[in-house]
Amino acid sequence: MNWWQALILGIIEGLTEYLPVSSTGHLIVAQRMMMGNLTGQEKAAADCFAICIQGGAIAAVLGLYFPRVRQMAMGMLGRDKEGLKLVFAVLAGFLPAAIIGYLANDWIEEKLFHFKWVAIAWFVGGVAILGVDRWMKKGGGSKGVELAEITIKMALLIGFAQCLAMWPGTSRSLMTILGGILVGLRLSAAVEFSFLLGLITLGAATAKKAVWPVHDIAEKYDHKLGGALLMWDSYGPVPLLIGVIAATISAAFAVKWMVSYLNRKGLGVFGWYRIAIAIVAAVMIATNALGLGAG
């Protein structure tokens, strides 16, 4: 991987991580288009890179939502009751993904990390967005509660919705935002909770990928490398640094734009976008464009 590929992947990660369009799906396509159909150690390193540059998106949200994060920190120190309540809600939302992700991760990577499943998820998610957007414009969800009123039950249900995003192409942001709306949060509150839940969910996924031994590579190359060492061995430090910085900057812009746009226009545009790229993806699969039909 060279510097410009790392830059493009970092920008894509930052722009799509918190938008309900699936960063994983976009990164899978971008990697295939720029780097070809990778196998073995090269594929494992590229997969680790796509996960670890999430650290940039995490940093962006930490900066933009620092007052809320600080409130949660004060809550854990016993100085802010509302902050402590939000900490428990975020932990409850994370719990389903922690358990199901641990049990199903290998199966998901083997069965669903293929282009055809990404395309299907894009289309299904797009239809779901349009349905919820139409329901909201007819008055559905207009009496939703603010984030301070979230309950553990609501957070758990959002957490189970987040688990559906383990299907690449679905979008963690999509499922947590829709889950938040459907359990009774206002749109703005659902978006903020999605961002906060993403801090721990993405943080855990990034940390796991960085330090966990890549077992399939260990079997083939007779060594056990964590994701970070595997990337260092394959690319060196510069591409990862470029990817993380690009993801941080682009995620900050994307989050600020998204919050402003959703408050004015709603979710509809993301549904149409997902359907459009699903159709493009279907054509690419049918024609085997750039080898994308192969997986």
N-to-C SSE string, H for helix and E for strand = HHHHHHHHHHHHHH
Number of strands: 0
Query: Major sheet, described briefly?
Result: none
Strand-residue proportion: under 5%
Which range best describes the helical content: under 10%, 10-25%, 25-40%, 40-55%, 55-70% or over 70%? over 70%
What's the quick description here?
By secondary structure, the protein is an all-alpha fold. Helix content is 78%, strand content 0%.
Structure in words:
The chain is mainly α and 295 residues long. It has one domain (3-294). Helices cover 78% and strands 0% of the residues. The protein has helices at 3-17, 23-35, 40-52, 54-64, 66-76, 81-111, 115-137, 152-163, 172-183, 187-211, 215-221, 227-235, 237-265, 268-287. The chain is globular, with a radius of gyration of 19 Å. Residues 216-223 have low confidence and may be disordered.
Looking at this protein, list some descriptive labels:
14 helices, 295 residues, mainly alpha
